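Chapter summary example: a protein plus adenosine monophosphate.
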Amino acid sequence: MKKLKFQTPTGMHDILPEDERYFQEIYKVVKEIADFYRFQKIETPILEDTELFSRGIGMTTDIVQKEMFTFKTRGGDFLTLRPEGTAPIIRAYFQHGFKNLPQPVKLWYFSPFFRYERPQLGRFRQFWQFGFEVIGEESSVIDAQLILIFSNILKELGFQNLVLKINSLGDSNCRPYYRKVLTSYFKSKVNVLCQDCRRRLKENPLRILDCKEERCQQIVSQAPQILDYLCEACKAHFKEVLEFLEDLGISYYLDPFLVRGLDYYTRTVFEIFEEGEKGKAVGALAGGGRYDNLAKIIGDEEIPAAGGAGGIERIIILLKEKKMKPPVEKKPKVFLAQIGGEARKKALKLLEVFREAKIPVAESLGRNSLKSQMRVADALGVKYTLVLGQKEAIEGKILVKDMISGKQKIIPLKRVVSFIKKKI
Ligand code: AMP
């Protein structure tokens, strides 16, 4: 096949009408749940100051070091296509004085994000996420409720075999000591670590826990575990989260090496997967955690917060794999056909009357022959076809054909909308 001159950029996709139906179904479920839990929707710009992300997500994360789409504007500013939603929302929280509102502030979003990743199954350079953030609340009950929200959304969409992985990353009180212990462990294995991890060892040894290289994973499996180094407060917080989950009947799997790809997390981190081969291949459907230090970095004030995000394309890949289709669009029950110039003019206007009356009507205004228009009407399976011929158009009448019985009659054009309203 001849290669087209213009195609979507690597790792980016058109959302075609078929997928748009999945997007809309997911949006509907997410919005219903967001409304129930009283989250308010927010949309931040696609571009932000590069520093918001480099400082917010962490200079030594893969996202900041390798995956940001960054450019210099004509005015000389460095801007970045947002790789995630949390840092911009915290920026907005401060910018709009949300800290003066009753706390916590609960926000949700449904938006596209950008990461310069190596494209593969479930990993794109432009992808969509829905996310929830609870800002201004330190209680462990929020961590559990966020996990509940993500698992509710996924269940509602039809996932039945969800696996929740959870861990605690401690806080600025206990993590530095764990970091030291971890560094000395990895130093003793430095010869086996991959090139990237040798660098990570100097910059941020916790990132090694996230390495996908087989040889590093083997070393990681024997590494000291953070749960053994949590301070009393972090230990208590984590215990409470787990108790809430148990009480809710949400089973979890403690993964002592779950760190997630962003540096801002403190205490609880979680990821939700769908069991099975394809689920594993696609990766986490949702993930998040607590980020009590992020507000300090962005707004210079300590404000506890927690949140998470779900990957929409990944969800769609698995829904398709499960052959779960979003509900089909409601088809119109009426088709409007026209023959001749005068009739076409009237048909164009008549459609507007139907639209105002909120009655969906299909048409094929560009066609001339009645036969080809009737074929379209048949294919749509409408109940009634309205035919405006030249004669009817001049006389202010219209022919109504019942497509099931085949009966037809001519009625005044003025009455057609109320007539159809009664019939359907
Ligand atoms: P994160 O923002 O990294 O915490 O990711 C949250 C969720 O977004 C993940 O669990 C994935 O479902 C999804 N996600 C993250 N990165 C990508 C990507 N490059 N392509 C598609 N989905 C992604």
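Key point: The pocket of adenosine monophosphate is lined by residues 84, 115, 117, 122-124, 127, 129, 260-261, 284-287, 309-311, 313-314 (CB under 6 Å).
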